[in-house]
Amino acid sequence: MKKILFPLMLIFVLALSACGNSNSSSSNKGNQSTSSDKITYESENGPVKLPAHPKRVVVLGSYTGNVMSLGVKLVGVDSWSKKNPRFQKELKNVEEVSDANVEKIMKLKPDVIIGLSNTKNVEKLKKIAPTVLFTYNKVDYLQQHIEIGKVLNKEKEAKAWVKDFKERAAEAGKEIKAKIGKDATVSVFESGTKDLYVFGDAWGRGTEILYQAMKLKMPEKVKEKALKAGYYAVSQEVIPEFAGDYMIISKNSEMDNSYQNSEIYKSIPAVKKHRVYVANAEEFYFNDPLTLEYQLSFFKKHFLGK
């Protein structure tokens, strides 16, 4: 999701079009083969004819890992994907693009473009290649992968991964609950330029796994303030009110992390008991399969020692 410039560029950019996590496939009805080399995908903006075997895909948004996990060639991705340390090897020869530079995208000769619903210059992009846009969080994170699978004619592969991941994440959740207690709470924070942000259950940073797949508990204050909006800004003074028995911190070293030196932060029980697990924010932002696999291994390592 998508520096808190990603968080916030992703947060504010994506929040404009977020519609919650309901109606898992009400506006994305699937695809139908129309010929041996074309399919039709029923997008939220209407039917889009696509190549049955895309070979040059551009992603303008947070779906780079979805495409990569399905083994489809990327020729252009957004800047935040290029910055992800876990993607750098695979994206070494992939161009960084944006919706502001249509000419650069045109030179890449994509056969499919995937973006967010607030992507700019959409009409120009459609003249370059079939363009499919998604509203962030209109469907849940697993259904979103299936929708990307439909676009790329890889629905079967996407569904297989979703089924397997759900089972593995649920099993890990049971193990974690058995170890930390079924009523133990977990909160997810990320630092920004001025404030600290706490997240609900569907805004990347591992929130989907912790709260949806593993069904771990969220502190009441987080539930009250962040669950519906997806995120909530907190000042140093009130961090203890939002801190769970365990804290996950998605940390960007270039942001303001001075709160960790405050006496208020140091007084939090989770901090005192060394129950704070810190992740590299640039690896933790998204909720695509590659990032989800990393997040799952991160949680198993820190909660279970695996």
TrEMBL record:
Coiled-coil residue spans: none
UniProt KW ATP-binding keyword: no
InterPro entries documented for this protein: ABC_transptr_periplasmic_BD, Bact_iron-sidero_bind
Region ranges (Disordered): 21-47
Domain Fe/B12 periplasmic-binding: 55-306
An annotated GO BP: iron coordination entity transport
Listed Pfam families: Peripla_BP_2
Location, primary (coarse class): membrane
GO CC, one annotated term: plasma membrane
Bias type Low complexity, positions: 21-36
Subcellular location: Cell membrane
Signal peptide (residue range): 1-17
Keywords: Lipoprotein, Palmitate, Signal, Transport
SUPFAM superfamilies: Helical backbone' metal receptor
Membrane-protein topology: Lipid-anchor
PANTHER family associated with the record: IRON III DICITRATE-BINDING PERIPLASMIC PROTEIN, IRON(3+)-HYDROXAMATE-BINDING PROTEIN FHUD
UniProt family annotation: Belongs to the bacterial solute-binding protein 8 family.
UniProt protein name: ABC transporter substrate-binding protein
